[in-house]
Specification:
This protein has two helices and three strands, in the order βαββα. It has a three-stranded antiparallel sheet with strand order 1-3-2, with helices on one face.
């Protein structure tokens, strides 16, 4: 039964290695290479969403790629559209990755 109170955000939405056809939902310049569930959860928190460990799953398989374990987080649905939520979280993930790369190069 469909749950209309939550939004599910799969890791594949933000994976730069994937094509749009395979499940990526953000533009390549806003995607990151091989995101993790922990990164996704942290980006969601920094974007202002509340999530707990019970609503994350790192063993789930994205329906378009059933042969690969992916993972997802589940957020309570608010007034925002899912596409706006995805864009906000993608921006936070990209900022965090760029900060990590800059600090790693110094």
């Amino acid at each position: 039964m469909k749950d209309y109170d939550h939004v599910i955000l799969w890791l594949d939405y933000f994976n730069k290695n994937l094509s749009i056809r395979k499940g990526r939902k953000v533009k390549k310049d806003r995607a990151v290479f091989d995101p993790t569930v922990a990164e996704l959860a942290e980006a969601a928190r920094s974007a202002g969403f509340e999530i707990s460990e019970e609503v994350t799953n790192d063993q789930a398989k994205y329906p378009r790629r059933p042969y690969v374990k992916s993972g997802y987080i589940m957020l309570l649905k608010g007034e925002e559209k899912k596409s706006h939520i995805i864009d906000k979280i993608a921006e936070k993930m990209l900022q965090k990755r760029s900060r990590q790369q800059k600090s790693g190069q110094k």
